């Protein structure tokens, strides 16, 4: 009698363990995925691997099949704002060394009243003015035959916005037989820069 009771207990324990294992397998088993298609839209033909479910042809998707990666939509292209070439009155400007011509430009800025503040280093400046200057003294032939006593002077300058890198001002001048040489060309540059600032 005791052996029969022991067998029954063992059978119950075995059944309980089997039930737990089955429940665990059901929990770890991947869910069944189905793909369905509308029969009315695809010709009312049910394929051999499909079953009819609620008027749709469905088939089981194998668990090993990976879903196609979702490609994110490209971000909308942002149009960059147009770069301004307007020179703001009262801004700071650094005049880069130009073999002495920068001294004439500094004096010309003050004389012509250019509405910019001159600073001593590029790091402090909103704008940087660079350029070249050339002076040609008259030769003996020009002095004798043409009566030219004074030099020819040429200069070209350009001013850049340090933040955007945009060239906001450019000017070239060529003066013949000038009495005051580089002073004249520097004042011409300063005058045109002032006009550009005031007209915008």
Layout of helices and strands, plus pairs?
Blueprint lengths: L1 H27 L4 E6 H4 L8 E3 L2 E6 L30 E4 L5 H12 L4 E2 L8 E10 L3 H7 L4 E11 L5 E12 L3 H18 L1
Parallel strand pairs: 4-5, 4-6
Antiparallel strand pairs: 1-3, 2-3, 6-7, 7-8
Report on this structure.
- With 200 residues, the chain is α/β, with parallel strands linked by helices.
- The protein folds into two domains: 32-65, no CATH class; 92-199, Double Stranded RNA Binding Domain, CATH 3.30.160.670.
- The protein contains five helices and eight strands, in the order H-E-H-E-E-E-H-E-E-H-E-E-H.
- The chain has helices at residues 2-28, 39-42, 101-112, 140-146, 182-199, and strands spanning 33-38, 51-53, 56-61, 92-95, 117-118, 127-136, 151-161, 167-178.
- It has a five-stranded mixed sheet, covered by helices on one side. It has a three-stranded antiparallel sheet with strand order 1-3-2.
- Strand 2 (51-53) and strand 3 (56-61) form a beta hairpin.
- The longest helix has 27 residues, at 2-28.
- Residues 5-15 have low confidence and may be disordered.
